[in-house]
Amino acid sequence: MRHCDRCHLDYTGDADRCALCGSTLTGQTTPSPFPVAIWHRLSRTVHRALGALIVIVVAAAAIAAAVFGLPALLIALGAGIALLVIAKLLLTQGPLSMKLSKYFSLR
Predict the structure, then answer these.
(1) Do residues 53 and 23 make contact, with C-beta atoms less than 8 angstroms apart?
(2) Contact 42, 76 (CB under 8 A)
(3) Band of residue 42 on the pLDDT scale cut at 50, 70, 90
(4) Residues 6+ apart with CB under 8 A from 47
(5) Average per-residue pLDDT in the chain?
(6) pTM of the model
(7) What residues contact residue 70 under an 8 Å CB cut-off, 6+ apart?
(8) E-assigned strands of 12-87?
(9) How many DSSP H helices and E strands does the chain contain?
(10) Exposure of 2 by Cβ count < 10 A (0-12 exposed, 13-18 middle, 19+ buried)?
(11) pLDDT, tens digit (0-9, with 9 covering 90-100), for 65-99
(12) Of 75, 76, 74, 72, which Cα lies nearest the Cα of 54?
């Protein structure tokens, strides 16, 4: 178990610094008793894939603008931004049902 010498608090999990004072924790790391959600484990991979997808959408928008004109650019960029916002909400806010239940009655 990790320990903060300043605050005299014990920590489980992979924390490196105290949440209260920010000092470095001492001792060995012990596993957290709480399970890690799947979207937190895959977060880095999904964020990289999302970044690559955004680059592809912007490149496709530039090609569409060169071939078809400005309206195609605006449509492709709008679709890319909408995709980014939806994916970011799903990644940071948890499952879709939990997110939607804040705004809609799912009875």
Answers:
(1) no
(2) no
(3) low
(4) 91
(5) 75
(6) 0.38
(7) none
(8) none
(9) 4, 2
(10) buried
(11) 778 777 777 777 787 778 777 777 666 665 655 66
(12) 76
Q: Which long-range contacts (CB under 8 A, 24 or more apart) does 92-96 make?
A: 94/37, 94/39, 95/39
Domain definitions of the chain by residue range: 1-34, 38-103
Q: How far apart are CA 100 and CA 82, in angstroms?
A: 17
From residue 51, alpha-carbon distances to 3, 6, 26, 55 in Å are: 37, 40, 36, 6
Contact 26, 5 (CB under 8 A): yes
Question: Is residue 90 exposed (0-12), middle (13-18) or buried (19+ Cβ within 10 Å)?
Answer: middle
Total length of the chain: 107
CA 81 to chain centre: 16
